[in-house]
Amino acid sequence: MSKEIEKYLKQIANNTGEIAKQLKEQNRRENKANIHPVVDGSDRELEHHDPTEQEKKIHDMDNAMHQLQKLGKMAGDLQEVERSLKGATRKQDYRQNARQR
What we know:
Layout: H1 2-35, H2 53-100
């Protein structure tokens, strides 16, 4: 009798595990569909694909371009600061020379 009970308990555990797997997969699909809605309105899911080498290179080039733009902006800001500092020192030198006269 206890062997039959063990058999049924194992069967229930296996069924419960299988149901849990199915629910988890269904939730994953629903979440994925909610995150990435399909434009044409169908129920199909968007498939994830790993980026190709060309896509990786494009991404890297885009990142490098943005970094260069940031560096260019910083260089422009530094030049502006340098100009204003030179202007301030010229004014200070002019004032000191005027006092000495």
